[in-house]
UniProtKB/TrEMBL annotation:
Gene name for this UniProt entry: pyrD
PROSITE patterns in alphabetical order: DHODEHASE_2
Species of provenance: Zobellia galactanivorans (strain DSM 12802 / CCUG 47099 / CIP 106680 / NCIMB 13871 / Dsij)
InterPro entries in the cross-refs: Aldolase_TIM, DHO_dehydrogenase, Dihydroorotate_DH_1_2, Dihydroorotate_DH_2, Dihydroorotate_DH_cat, Dihydroorotate_DH_CS
Domain Dihydroorotate dehydrogenase catalytic residues, every copy: 49-342
Pfam (any one): DHO_dh
Function, as annotated: Catalyzes the conversion of dihydroorotate to orotate with quinone as electron acceptor.
Subunit record text: Monomer.
NCBIfam families given in the database record: PRK05286.1-2, PRK05286.2-5, pyrD_sub2
The enzyme's E.C. designation: 1.3.5.2
Name recorded for this polypeptide: Dihydroorotate dehydrogenase (quinone)
Swiss-Prot/TrEMBL cofactor(s): FMN
Length: 347
């Protein structure tokens, strides 16, 4: 039904307007009692799907990537479609509008999306207000810095978000890999990234002691555009800072071998979707093999089928996340992946 009726209708609209309309529709349907129906159609409850990663027990390994529910407005409703976890954000200390519209583009022949949203969000305090309600699903908190914060002061932005979200999320993701905030990717360089992660690790220990709580796992989200030498640096940084894992990968600034109209291909921003499938899997495999699987990896990028997800898991990912594939394929993709994982276990 989604691919034959709803998706074609949504794709007639501007991409950002379609996103907001989808949110309103899902919220409305769940409010009038459709939650149980969605769960019956899409959710699989099976102990064989459960997986413990960085100390957290996931009901299944298929999550929703950051960027879809930036402001933590719909995480419980989205969990009805069978996600094992939902990552909110990217959140920044202060609200910001993001980049000027139009800033979200569908490249339909490539089953891809280009976005230059620019960390548009209502600020971390606003999200915390909604995160205080009971969670039906595990929540990851993806954090970043405000556009106007210079890189030399970036640590303070990440700490503000970390402190605010500590009581309300199950794990953290440090986003230094979005291409849509000027200068942000410079924080992926070894020295500033090590300093940032060590500060967050120290804060994690301090807050856990103060609150008599468990430390929250800290993950790093990296770009697919890193060289092999830079990926080796990432492995070294994870070992030196003792963070809990890596999310591979964010969107790419590359535009190779695309079929879509040149006017769309030339739009600046991060490219996600099918063109990213191969590269994100390569990065996962490189990290897993070169580190001797020293840390958990969440695989994301170009998962549009159960085969795509299984490839990432076989390459070394412990969990996977959907974003663009969820938009193109709909919620049935989550169930298909989980069924494929169960089938693979039986073989």
């Amino acid at each position: 039904m989604y691919k034959s009726i709803l998706q074609p209708l949504l794709f007639l609209l501007d991409a950002e307007k379609a996103h907001h309309l989808t949110f309103s529709l899902v919220r409305f349907l769940c409010k009038i009692g459709f939650s149980s129906l969605f769960e019956a159609i899409y959710k699989i409850e099976d102990p064989r799907l459960e997986k413990e990663v960085f100390g957290i027990r996931f009901k299944n390994p298929v999550g929703l990537a950051a960027g879809f529910d930036k402001d933590a407005k719909l995480y419980n409703e989205l969990s009805n479609f069978g996600f094992g976890f939902v990552e909110i954000g990217t959140l920044t200390p202060k609200p910001q509008e993001g980049n000027p519209k139009k800033r979200l583009f569908r490249l339909k022949p490539d089953q891809a999306i280009v976005n230059r949203m620019g960390f548009n969000n209502m600020g971390v305090a606003d999200a915390v207000g909604r995160l205080k309600k009971k969670h039906k699903v595990l929540i990851g908190g993806n954090i970043g810095k405000n556009k106007l914060t210079p890189n030399e002061n970036a640590v303070s932005d990440y700490l503000i978000c970390f402190d605010a979200l500590f009581d309300h999320v199950d794990y953290f993701v440090v986003n230094v890999s979005s291409p849509n905030t000027p200068g942000l990717r410079e924080l992926q360089d070894k020295a500033p990234l090590t300093a940032l992660l060590l500060e967050l690790k120290s804060e994690n220990t301090k807050l856990a002691r103060q609150k008599q709580a468990k430390e929250r796992p800290i993950l790093l989200k990296i770009a697919p555009d890193l060289t092999d030498d830079q990926l080796l640096d990432i492995i070294a940084i994870v070992g030196d800072t003792k963070i809990d894992g890596v999310i591979a990968t964010n969107t790419t600034i590359g535009r190779e071998h695309l079929k879509s109209d040149a006017s769309l291909v030339s739009e600046t921003g991060g490219l996600s979707g099918k063109p990213l499938t191969k590269r994100s899997t390569e990065v996962i495999r490189f990290l897993a093999e070169r580190s001797n699987k020293a840390f958990p990896i969440i695989g994301v990028g170009g998962i549009h089928s159960e085969e795509d997800a299984l490839e990432k898991l076989e390459a070394g990912a412990d969990l996977v996340q959907l974003y663009t594939g969820f938009i193109y394929e709909g919620p049935a993709l989550i169930k298909r992946i989980n069924k494929a994982i169960l089938k693979k276990q039986r073989q």
